[in-house]
Amino acid sequence: MLFITVSVSVRKSFFGLSTLMMVLMCYALAGVVLFGNVKWGEGINRHTNFESAGQAMLVLTRIMTGEDWYKIMNNCMITTPYCTTTLENGRRISDCGNYAAAIIYFISFYVIVSFMFVNLFIAIVVENFSLFYSDEEESLLSQKNLYNFQTTWNLIDRNRKVHPFNHEHF
């Protein structure tokens, strides 16, 4: 029964999942641009880095679960004298992070994804779970009540337009 609940929930939350994937991809690409060359440390290493979009997606998935996101943020905030900056062929090459960008990036991502999307999906699963396990007798509205309401409303509103509420009528 739990598998059925989850599968129905995934189908119902398709657009939410699509939006989440777009948000993840946008943040991953921004992470590659902002933190692609950051010096490795405690939070950023060969497994957890922003050197490619795929790696960034994995890092953001890890952050979405709340695992050591503050360590990754601290590594992305690294500035001189703890990092190096050189000039090669007139281009500045640096393994420094960006303090302000890291704070804005990680806090906004964590708030948007963890507090909004994850809770949205949990609510969808709980709602579907309660729909599957609720009895017809225990529910406030039965299918018959809904059907009667629809047929009565269709008698009143034949053209399928909303009638404005008229206070004088009552």
UniProtKB/TrEMBL annotation:
GO CC term, one of those recorded: membrane
Keyword Transmembrane helix annotated: yes
Location of the protein in the cell: Membrane
Alphabetic keyword roster: Membrane, Transmembrane, Transmembrane helix
Predominant location category: membrane
Superkingdom of this protein's organism: Eukaryota
Ion transport domain sequence ranges: 5-136
Topology class, membrane: Multi-pass membrane protein
Transmembrane segments: 14-36, 99-126
Molecular-function GO terms, alphabetical: monoatomic cation channel activity
Protein name as it appears in the record: Ion transport domain-containing protein
Native source species: Trichoplax adhaerens
Phylogenetic classification of the source organism: Eukaryota, Metazoa, Placozoa, Uniplacotomia, Trichoplacea
